[in-house]
## 1
Amino acid sequence: MAHSVVIIGSGFGGIGMAIRLREAGVHDVVILERADGLGGTWRDNTYPGAACDVPSHLYSFSFERKTDWTRRFPPQPEILDYLWHCARKYGLVGRIRFGTEVTEARFDEDAALWRVSTTTGELDARVLVSACGQLNRPALPPIEGRESFAGASFHSSRWDHGTDLRGKRVAVVGTGASAIQIVPEIATEAAELRLFQRSAPYVIEKPDRPYRAWEKAVLRTVPGAYALSRARIYAMFESRALGFVKYPKLMGLMEKGFRKHLEEQVADPALRDRLVPGYRMGCKRILLSDTYYPALNRPNVRLVTDPIERVTPSGVATAGEHHDVDVIVYATGFRSTDFLSPMKIVGRDGRELNEAWRDGAQAHLGITVSGFPNLFLLYGPYTNLGHNSIIYMLESQFRYVLGCVEALRRHGLDWIDVKPDVQDAFTREMRERMRTTVWEAGCQSWYMTEDGRVVNNWPGFTFAYRNATRRPDPRHFTARRATAR
């Protein structure tokens, strides 16, 4: 018996989609999760200092409000607890098959079903939803000798909590979003910390603090208080889109704030010079921290900007110097443009998704892929943001997918498949609009494919995306009615 909907992944996308489906009366929903617990990136990233850089009230579902967040910016354990709360409240835990990794999904056109192969068996689905996200496959750098290191080494998203860093010589490779949270935490216990920087990030003030008891009471009891807080934060963040996607020169205003922040926190002019990025602000992800720069001032912390030549059994070698270390932490990000890899996805006429995406990932509205009927992506290509909450984008996608599922049910359809010319037109529009964004201002970032095209980000306002995904347009799809079998 085929399931109505099978969802791959149990992070914000998978949990939120399942909730919305069940609320719409689609109860035969199964979630496949390769790990032994839900949570996606918030399950995987347990490194010291892990937290979100989007305020709590905006980094949560609009339909499941939480008024008792402890801080303005939520820490990892609290976000994970929130996701578990949602899964339990809406009866999803029993619908999740943990320890089940999808190896292949193949569309059977005659039966109008997705045949899904997993590490624990086979199952069929009328509708397949990928909620794998963009930040779940660690990227380890191709450094010569990396495997030869004799000490402990691990990626930041696979933190080895059994390794005691107290009194150790620690190397942190990378200066991205994870590194700026990790460094301040471990610098207080490591004997020495060498931070290897390839390019400096823009780090601005993080207005974080605990919520006071009276504030939480107001949010809990005063009608409209929580909604007002959420709306205020949304409007503040959304205004940044002008600089990111319309008028990149406006980023100069934010850059002044960055320089002020840097000068206030780093007194040494030589160190400060090495912390100034050589690209336009916003081209790479802007980071928030009040503790990162002070950590670099510590006497046991050294910023290394010479390129890494190789890793040796005893440390890290740069030009003319060898850095003896006991532990290496790779805070080197994720393979964000691979999307559904390493799963094998086969659509109509035996077409493989990897082949369809050989020139870069494409999906109409980041959700539907031509030639792959009844397959829907959450957080797919062209849906990431540089300025606001991805939860807002996900909720837009939930509504669009629900509209497609309802169309299948209401019109008695076997499947729907987005037309290739519709997908191509959307991709052309995205690439054209991307040219004026700050993300194509001359830097290399995790938003880009190897050939330098930005395929992750939405080049517009989030409310424009919500309007575009308000309901599926029947003219965009081909369909087969059930009577046609």
## 2
Amino acid sequence: MFLRDTRTRSACVSGEEERFSLTHASSRQLGNRIDFLALPLLAATTLHASAFDVSMLRILQTLAYLLLGLQVGAWCDRMRNRPILIVADLGRAVAYATVPIAAAFGALTLWQVYIVVAVAGVLGVFFEVAHQTYLPRLVEREDLTEGNARLQANISVAALAGPSAAGFLVQFFSAPGAVAANAVSFLWSASWLKGIRTREPRLVRAARVPVRRDIADGLRYLRRQPILSTFAITATLVSLFQSMQIVVGVLFLLRDVGLSPGAIGLVSTTGLVGAVLGALSARRLGTWAGEARMIRLAALPFALGYPMLPLTGSGWQLVWYPLGTFLASFAITVMNVLQVSFQQATTPEGLRGRLNATMKFLIFGVAPLGSLLGGVLATSTGLRTTLWIAAAGLMFSMVFLVFSPLRRMRDLPAGRLVSGSTRP
């Protein structure tokens, strides 16, 4: 009887995990990938924005992490996460829906798009921090790698659909129509979340302490863990230079290479096949080579992928873009699955939200700076040169990872790095 109950619970949790992974795929990647193409194309084609104007979109998308990221982590440790996820999805749906409505009345301006992106950015911080804190409450510790691999696989499938869908939506239904589809994707996500039946564990109410003390706990914990610190520094460098690449990538394909919106979506989708393969193979590769060694090995295709992007041109030279994004997406997905699973498994329950927020604060907090640099460099030196500078920075970030403490390890250590107390 006990065995049957255990299996029933396991199957139930597995189903809830799958529902959660589908939710995350729909909102974070399908919606965000539409954002990556539709919003820059909307600004460039409909509103005639400059390269610097387009860079402001990316700045506003990520600025909230710098302003609110640490506070949100402390809040997410104090409350249930599913209501946060649902409210964040519904709020983003409403914000994005205002864009096609304003466009239909001929009243859409670049400033309105900026405001929408900023509001969605704030809600996105709550969603991102809460979702990574929520997954360990749905699955057991030994299932985290499998859960994150499944989550990443669904994310990657949505990522594959997003660019192609966005490109053709812009081409055949206009950029505001693509943004309307984005709003619908967040409503879809909220409906999936609403259907999750597994209740979150009851949170133990500790003595109320100031938020700034909770924030300090998360920073102190990260500083004391050399492996997590390595991941944080590497990911921060990647985010800085990747933001430069993202902010000019669509304009580069549109203006320098001369592709249509539909072709841009197709080229981007082809490259993201690597993300799907990375998600499907991450656990197996980590077992075969060892998690720490696999993370270091994945640095090579990542470093080789980004220098291929500025080589892209017309004719046969178009192959460089999907090939480069294939290699980079495969590598970063493998690293993400292994790193996030390690972080979730080794962080005490009462610190997960704060540590997630601290990591995202560091990673996404530099993204506005990267986007600003990308816009300035694109205006002064050109789109292709900016891609070369971004590629050099991304290669440097992998050198730091290769020569980190991971070089002496085959596997990542198991178990909690700091046991027991939620206070480091």
## 3
Amino acid sequence: MSSTLFRTKKVEQSLLDTEEPEHALKKSLSALDLTVFGVGVIIGTGIFVLTGTVAKNNAGPATALAFVAAGVACALAALCYAEFASTVPVAGSAYTFSYASLGELPAWIIGWDLVLEFALGTAVVAVGWSGYIQSLMENAGWTMPAGLGSREGADTFGFDILAAALVLVLTAILVVGMKLSARITSVVVAIKVTVVLVVIIAGAFLIEGKNYDPFIPKEKPVEAGSSLDSPLIQLMFGWAPSNFGVMGIFTAASVVFFAFIGFDVVATAAEETKNPQRDMPRGILGSLVICTTLYVLVSIVVTGMQHYSQLSVDAPLADAFKATGHPWFAGFISFGAAVGLTTVCMILLLGQTRVFFAMSRDGLLPRFFSHVHPRFKTPHRPTIVLGVIIAVLAGFTPLTELAALVNIGTLFAFVVVAIGVIILRKSRPDLPRAFRTPWVPVIPILSVCASLWLMINLPAETWVRFAIWMAAGFLVYFLYGRTHSRLARGEASEEQPSAGGGTA
């Protein structure tokens, strides 16, 4: 039993699978496309909301240091992802990496985890986008009909038609092709980054030095729990710890870390990249560096414009400009946030469909979903099915309690990928690696420790729900995946001699 549960799929076989005409994705992405995808999915609600939350609740002006700490934790994971994505440029990200290093059962677990993570992430972002659009509509004097607006906090039956419509439109775009998706993402990201740069440049002229005193607050100057009232924070995380002092910076880092979620989605597009060995590391690391820099600058500016104790929790950037007598910027920032969330939603949906496609191509899910469109060369079947399911989920379901699963799912993937790098270095030292994670095993071990430390800061309820989802995954695997996988049916050899004497 144990030998079948931990059978590995050799890297060479994974690469051969990408050349089968019926299961081959079109290679159309460049390093610039990947970087744009990364920036597009990372810069979202987090930069427009989290700055105020952690400044007021944890770190004060030292929020910039919290973003640096979170960026370092992500960089450790990004170095591991970059090695895997350039060595095994196959759709599926952490799922594919796990299959090559840890074995079938761990790969299934991480794939099952990613399917949930990306599905809930897409639905949550779609609901957030709907809220911004409805706010802008109300500012223009338009109101959504009763029962067709946001479901969050609703007491009566209704359907968030805007959230569902967004998911369906993005599903259609992803079916048509990756290059179209990349072009649309490029335009939207340009708008979003422009908004962020305007905030930084315009806000820099409104900074008052006295607002930085104290830079690292020793105690909370507002009523306990007052900054937990933001429905968006509850929607995204379900929690917001309130420590101050030096430990407040690290606690804040565990919160703002979730503003970085998404760079790992870039790895799911490895199979559709023209030169993945060169471009995947550039896309992953480049997008992370750009976003970390922007996050730090924004946090420095907003805490300099307005004292951290007076920052708004729901819309700190927009309200800081209002407080300094520049209300025009508030609408401009809200527009940028609404536009920016479209790319976050699309790239999360992209990531989920690629993981699902890879799992079906390996036989762990029905092979029906592993065929690509004859014209567009995209995995149209899982894209359409999952898009419809997520549209319904976003339309009907208030996601406050479920959204925290996105956080733990991402961190779990980081842990698995870091461990996989160490194992594959031992079992397959002969593999050509265009990018090598430096200081192995030190960097992967640090990545595991950083991710686990952030995971233990999550509430117990999140762990319980995560365990329930994983239990359901085990059931599906043992009832279907274990006997239907291509390795089980002998369609792909699981043994591969290596210089290290292991299997791959």
## 4
Amino acid sequence: MSDPAPHPLRTLHEGLSDLDRRLFDAVADSPSPLLDLTMRPLSAAADHSKLWLVIAAGLGGLGGLSSRRGAVRGIVSLAVTSLIVNQGLKRIYPRRRPVFDGVPLRRARRQPTSTSFPSGHSAAAAAFAIGVGLENRTAGYALAGLAGAVGLSRVATGAHYPGDVLAGFAVGAGVAIAGARLVPPVDDSRTMTPEPTVERVETEHDGAGLVVVLNPASGDGTGTRVAEEIRSALPRAEIVELSADSDIETVAADAAERAEFLGVAGGDGTVATLAAHAVATGKPLAVFPAGTFNHFALDIGSETVAAVVDSIRNGRVAKVDVVWLNDEKLLLNTASIGAYPDFVEARTRYQKRRIGRATATVRAMRHVLRHSSPVTVRIEGRPAAVSFFFLGNSMYGAPSFVPGRRSRLDDGVLDVRYLEDGHRYAWSRLLLSWISGRIRNSQVYRELQAPVVTIDADEPFRVAHDGEAGDLHTRATFRVAYRELRVFGTSLTR
């Protein structure tokens, strides 16, 4: 009587196992100096996930918001995967490790004592790489290649069969993808902003027709140096120097009336005043960096006097947004309520005592930390007690209570960020959400983007803007004037 035919599943299992062993032998027997040199150190680096922990620390410390989120998601995916593999799957299917005498030059220093299926190193690698990639695609692509190399190292060092590695990859990827279903990745995409509005105007190489209003005292004396550079590069430009008793509004109005092109060199407050007159007359504005920080000048590509002169000579003009406060005051950069106006007011008060700006800044910060209290207002009708409130002209980098730099000044939105007071463990919760890259989910941090934002309150509150302490208001409406100001600049016209 003939033996019964083997079960098809058993035949398949035996065939796959035989293929697995043959593939292992092929890698083990391959005479490759490159594998001999790289595989054992790489495999050892991935022991206990050390490699991935170091990369996660780098992403969290040096990367942007999506990198920090990716690092957190990658580590969580890795931890869950390791638990499933080591405490579950390895016990369900206790496969023996391969005999790795064929790889003496690159085999691991010691044979792992756990069972072989699936590969824990490969599972952790896939979980981390895909977890990071779900939040930051570029980093994910790079880590996918590294994860694949780690999987290869487990075969090349004789620790696993290829089937163990493939199964590990599948488990790690599955855990990361399942995690994305439970906690969806954050979508950082923004509405696409139309291309910059750019034009060319006819200008004279020597600056004829340009009237520059300049504050010699700005930037702790930088204004005087800038005046000399302008006279040297643009000899026919007219420079109107402000004095301590000058009425800047009158000077600006007179300059705007007779100039073909307006120029300004001073702090952000001076620049904003000239910008308002440039808007009213429709004339292009050249912004020379003569203030302390030069936020607006830097963001339009006017880092140096030479860069501004080059823009003027080439007639490169772009249209950028400005912000109107109650349709009366023009703002170019930012506005704040709460702690920041208190800081500006205190710093100004200390500077009047003829101490250095750095010392005045430190004393003002100390004063605010000791004495500043939340401001109770209504933001678009929603009551809020805010300890920090920031409003920017255009988007200021990634979400954070510490705004970054603007990449555009013509996107047509106000960037509003604020911290709400009154939550338990507010600062701890804020720090945790910031480190994890999920600050938008925080109950302490709020943000909105809109073309118009209104703030009102029962008690007057101070609105600081463009480095000035500002005035008291019970209602402040901020409105974007889309691409209303024409400026000479480089970064917006390339």
